Every structure is written in C-alpha cells, then in structure tokens.
C-alpha cells in the first residue's frame, strides 16, 4: 500500500498502520560505474543491505564485505563507482548519509553518500584517514579527495594498496522518496 497522508475520518486499521510504520527488508544494490564500462561485480561478497520506508522517507543500511571473487572493475580513477538506491529519490541531493571505507582497523576512511541521479549514489571522500594521513595509498602524497572508484582511496600505484577481499563499505542513509 503506498503512503497516503492521514485524512479526517480515516480509521486505524492494521493495513493503515503498516503503511505508516517502517518494515525493514533486504535489498541488493546494482553496482555500476559512471561511464558504464569496466563494470564491477560483487562475486562472493557478503551483502547486508536493508531499507525501510516510512511515509515518503527511506532509511537504510549499506554493508558490503568484498570477497575473493569480487571484481572491482579496474576502470581507474576516471570511472567512479555507483550503487543503486532501493527506491527512487525525490531529488538529487548532496548527502543522504555516510559510509566507512574499511581496509583494516587502522586503515579506513569516511565518505559521503551523494546522489548523482535520483536512482544512484556515489561515494565522495571528504576527509583524511583517522590516523591523520592523506587518503591516497594509506598516507602517500597526491590528494585523494573525490569520488571512490576501483583504485581510490587505497592506490597510488603501490603494490597491495588497491581494493581487495576482506575490505568493506559500511554506512547508513536517509532520503525523501519520489512517491
């Protein structure tokens, strides 16, 4: 049942209460890139993505631990990762939530979940690592701000500093839905 604002004379029925009460459900995001080439795939990654709708609000969790058969796309820094939303958003907004990009307990970064269309979000780095180092190659010089892709934030060409099995992306979001 789609959301309908409460009107005078409406009765509190079980169906009506379900329509305004969040019910959590699983969701598998579609993982693509900004160019549509070098498409990544989850492979045997562990996905624990869930969302709930309450009226015209969507609340969700995004939890992905990459596996040994995950394909990160290999598109380089010009091919940013995109993840589909569980339901379309009402508008493109600059922040619906935050995620932790986790390599290890000491190597992790925060990223903003930014809607680039009403159906996908991208991950934008806005901070350094908790240890105060820059976001590229776990402390190498050269920047590291911008949208996450198959090499960022871990790589500057140094062996062992790209996305790998066991790395994770975890966060929460909230946005206004299109209907």
Task: Describe the secondary structure blueprint for this structure.
Blueprint: H1 14-20, E1 25-26, E2 31-33, E3 46-47, E4 50-54, E5 57-65, E6 81-84, E7 97-102, E8 108-115, E9 120-125, E10 146-147, E11 168-176
Antiparallel strand pairs: 1-4, 2-6, 3-5, 4-5, 5-11, 6-9, 7-8, 7-11, 8-9, 9-10
Structure description:
- It is a single chain.
- The chain is mainly β and 179 residues long.
- Helix content is 4%, strand content 31%.
- It has one helix at 14-20; strands at 25-26, 31-33, 46-47, 50-54, 57-65, 81-84, 97-102, 108-115, 120-125, 146-147, 168-176.
- Strands 1, 2, 3, 4, 5, 6, 7, 8, 9, 10 and 11 form an eleven-stranded antiparallel β-sheet that branches.
- The chain starts with 13 loop residues before the first helix and ends with a strand.
Topology, number of strands: 11
- Overall radius of gyration: 18 Å
**Distance between the amino and carboxyl termini:** 12 Å
Uncertain stretches of 5 or more adjacent residues: 134-143
SS field, number of helical segments: 1
Amount of beta strand: 25-35%
| Major beta sheet summary | 11 strands, antiparallel
Instruction: Give the CA-based shape.
Output: elongated
- Tell me the series of helices and strands, N- to C-terminal: HEEEEEEEEEEE
Helix content: under 10%
Mean pLDDT: 84
Structural class: mainly beta
Q: Key terms for this structure?
A:
179 residues, mainly beta, 11-stranded antiparallel beta sheet, 31% strand
């Amino acid at each position: 049942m789609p959301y309908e604002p409460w009107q005078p004379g409406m009765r509190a029925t079980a169906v009506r209460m379900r329509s305004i009460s969040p019910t959590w459900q699983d969701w598998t995001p579609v993982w693509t890139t900004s160019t549509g080439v070098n498409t990544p795939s989850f492979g045997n990654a562990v996905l624990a993505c869930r969302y709930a709708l309450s009226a015209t609000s969507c609340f969700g969790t995004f939890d992905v631990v990459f596996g040994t058969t995950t394909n990160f796309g290999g598109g380089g820094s010009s091919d940013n990762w995109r993840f589909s939303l569980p339901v379309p958003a009402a508008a493109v907004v600059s922040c619906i939530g935050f995620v932790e990009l986790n390599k290890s307990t000491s190597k992790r970064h925060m990223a903003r979940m930014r809607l680039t269309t009403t159906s996908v979000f991208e991950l934008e780095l806005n901070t350094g690592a908790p240890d105060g180092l820059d976001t590229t190659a776990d402390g190498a010089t050269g920047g590291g701000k911008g949208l996450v892709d198959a090499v960022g934030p871990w790589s500057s060409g140094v062996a062992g500093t790209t996305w790998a099995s066991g790395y994770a992306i975890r966060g929460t979001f909230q946005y206004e839905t299109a209907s």
